[in-house]
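note to self: dont lose this again. the chain is below, predicted strucutre after it. 116 aa total, dont forget to put it in the shared folder this time
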Amino acid sequence: MRQIFRRILLRAGLPHLRLHDLRHSHATLMLMSGVHPKVVQERQGHSGIAITLDTYSHVLLGLPEAAVRRLDGFLAFKLDQMQNVGKMSATGAATDSEPDGNRTHDTRIKSPLLYP
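---
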C-alpha cells in the first residue's frame, strides 16, 4: 500500500507523505472547520473521545473564543428580532416568525429571554 501511495505522490509531484499524515490532516481540518469532536472520533476510529481530544487539543485552542463570538452574534440577532417583533406588535401587524402567546415555533426553546 505504501509503495502505491508513494508512486501516486511522485506522479502528482507532491512531497513525501505518509498515509498517517493524511489521516492526521483529515482530523485536523475537520476540527478546524467546526466539525464536532465526537464525529471526528468516530471517523478516526478512536475508542473514546478522550483520545481524539488529547491528540488534537492544539487545534481546539481557539474554540472557546469562537464559541463566544457565535453566541454573541446569536444573542444580537435575537435581541434585534425581539425589538422588531415589539415594533410590529405595537402596530398590530403579526408575522409568521412571531411566536403565538407563550409557545415558540421551536418546541425545544422555552426561554422567556429569547421569546418574551
